[in-house]
Amino acid sequence: MTTRVAVIGATGKMGRLVCQLVENAEDYELVAELNSQSPLSDMLGADVAVDLTVPGVSQSVVDFATTNGLRVLVGTSGWSEDRINALAGRIAGRDETGVIIIPNFSIGSVLATGFAAQAARFFDSIEIVEAHHAGKVDSPSGTAVRTAELIGRARAALGPVSAPHTDQRARGQQVASVPVHSIRMDGLLARQEVLLGGTGETLTISHNTLSSASYERGILLALAATRSARGVAVGLDALLDLGPESAGLGA
């Protein structure tokens, strides 16, 4: 059965990539490509809406799509845990719709985030440095926020991380008690480092995105899962079998 797809934010880099993947896949049909001037009603008639807009627009796109019975794949940053929980409450019990939110479509990035959350139980000093291209409008990145939230969840029984002098602006933005530092610079695509410190040692978990081709496998995986999504799922880790050690890291 062919799944009809509408892409919102189709003129952006990720939007163009998703459109290309959908058009090249035999079991999908691209029925609508929306830009910033398109009415949201243009997505009606699709089975799945793919939101690749900007943080200030994303929630209205998702609300419209779910109100009209579409399933939604969200690739837009800016979805905090509070916003996700509120969305889950709004669509709870509705079998005709569901939302999958993916902060990062890279398999490697998801693994690095999972590794960081596992390691967080063994280190008290933890900070995140994320760097993206100058055109990325939001900071911290959705991936960094997701990583910090999972670190906080993994440390729930241990308490907040040790992060001195966070009252100083140069110490980053605290997310789930983890200082997050953002860099926006020409010449970069995406990079994240999680630095963990303990007595006499440090551990760095680093992931680099070198090409947008790294997103393709994750996009197709998430798109396939969205076809039958119910409720709200967050992150590729919710769609992958990462083993029993990661069972508690899903949303």
From TrEMBL:
Domain Dihydrodipicolinate reductase C-terminal: 109-237
Keywords on record: Amino-acid biosynthesis, Cytoplasm, Diaminopimelate biosynthesis, Lysine biosynthesis, NAD, NADP, Oxidoreductase
Protein name, per record: 4-hydroxy-tetrahydrodipicolinate reductase
Entry's localization field: Cytoplasm
Top-level EC class: oxidoreductase
TM region positions: none
Reaction catalysed by this enzyme: (S)-2,3,4,5-tetrahydrodipicolinate + NAD(+) + H2O = (2S,4S)-4-hydroxy-2,3,4,5-tetrahydrodipicolinate + NADH + H(+); (S)-2,3,4,5-tetrahydrodipicolinate + NADP(+) + H2O = (2S,4S)-4-hydroxy-2,3,4,5-tetrahydrodipicolinate + NADPH + H(+)
Residues holding NAD(+): G9, A10, T11, G12, K13, M14, G75, T76, S77
Database matches in SUPFAM superfamilies: Glyceraldehyde-3-phosphate dehydrogenase-like, C-terminal domain, NAD(P)-binding Rossmann-fold domains
Active site: H132, K136
Oligomer status and interactors: Homotetramer.
NCBIfam families attached to this UniProt entry: dapB
Residue span(s) of domain Dihydrodipicolinate reductase N-terminal: 4-105
Database matches in PROSITE patterns: DAPB (PS01298)
Pfam families noted in UniProt: DapB_C (PF05173), DapB_N (PF01113)
E.C. numbers: 1.17.1.8
Family statement drawn from the similarity comment of this UniProt entry: Belongs to the DapB family.
Pathway: Amino-acid biosynthesis; L-lysine biosynthesis via DAP pathway; (S)-tetrahydrodipicolinate from L-aspartate: step 4/4
Function in brief: Catalyzes the conversion of 4-hydroxy-tetrahydrodipicolinate (HTPA) to tetrahydrodipicolinate.
Residues that coordinate or bind (S)-2,3,4,5-tetrahydrodipicolinate: H133, G142, T143
Protein's organism: Leifsonia kafniensis
